[in-house]
Amino acid sequence: xxxxRFLLPVCLAMxxxxxxxxxxxxxxxxxxxxxxxxxVLNQANTLKATTxxxxxxxxxxxQIEMQAQALRNIPKGQWGQIRADLAQLxxxxxxxxxxxxxxxxxxxxxxxxxxGFHSPTNYLQEYRGWVDNALGGIKASLQxxxxxxxxxxxxxxxxxxxxxxxxxxxxxxxxxxxxxxxxVQQVQQLQKLRQLQMAQIQAQAGxxxxxxxxxxxxxxxxxxxxxxxxxxxxxx
Length: 236
Fold this sequence. Notes:
Elements (H helix, E strand, L loop, with lengths): L1 H26 L5 H38 L11 H14 L10 H8 L9 H45 L4 H59 L6
């Protein structure tokens, strides 16, 4: 009987101890290493995807910026003043008072001044007209060359501006625009060269026409004198 009394409190104490231990275990957090590793991997993958997306967006923005830069144009180009230059050269020919390529009645004026094999009634007067026309054409061609020489300064300024634009071109559009400006300058230079050649042709033509007309008039006058000498004094 005494033993039973002793065991009963002991059993009760053990039951209470076991219940306390189970309750303390229920309050502690449970650590799942597999779940933890999976969460870490998911977060790493999410961070990597976000980084890749940010890099892609940055590349797209850079491409858009490059496209916008390539389409950027030059607001005001350098084209020179070819019309004004050629008009100034044309005025020289109009003021020369000679038979020139700008003469609207070139064929008729040339035929009247240089009639060919013709015996002039006043050889000195007509010869003076031929000389004046030839010298006028030579003078006009020299004035043409002088003006073009003075125009080289403004043309060099335009070329210098084009070189600066070419060095500072920031995209394909600006580079193409500078190339077009340079091409236009080349065409303008060819136009001025053609004009200078026309002035040279005019001077040469006037000189050759004067030489040929002088010889032709001399031969025509000589023939007229011979014909008059061989003709009978009295015609029946």
